[in-house]
Specification:
Number of helices: 6
CATH class: Alpha Beta
Strand order of the largest sheet: 2-3-4-1-6
Number of domains: 1
CATH topology: Rossmann fold
Distance between the termini: 37 Å
Structural class: alpha/beta
Helix content: 25-40%
Length: 175
Amino acid sequence: MAPSVWWQLPGPREFVEALVDDLREGRQVVVLLPEHGPQNHGLLAALREAWRDDGSIDSLAVTPEQTALEALMERYQLPRGAQPTPHALLETPGFRGRVLWIEGLDEKSWASWSDFLSEYQHLARNTSLVDRTVFIAPVVGEATRTTIAADVGWRCAAGTISPTGPTCCSSRCTR
């Protein structure tokens, strides 16, 4: 089945719609995906299509050697003299009001991103939805075996996807 057809099926389409709802509510979204399967192809394109009336979704490619802050600081320049922290990032004008798809997360890089997103979510709650940058973190393979901290506005969207719909990964999320 072609990726574009997969995401048009009722279950996967509802999954994408649920992700879009999370983004509209300002939530950071973690998507747990199996290592192989049709759902690993075309999710970003399906999200971009569903989100197009709201704006764009930017991709940020990361490497295992970079921490989350290093990857973000490389892309979004902090004002001169600012310390590289999630709070400073929130104050950076070029960073505000975006939706960022994190590309290339693996087990090594996920540890840094998981910590960053948990801290960032606490800070972002006090930022208006218009100015709040939200992240979509697709996590594949062995990295999905880690426990994910859930918080207000921080949601683990799904573990696996079948043609009939998503399987919630709430057993992997902690409060």
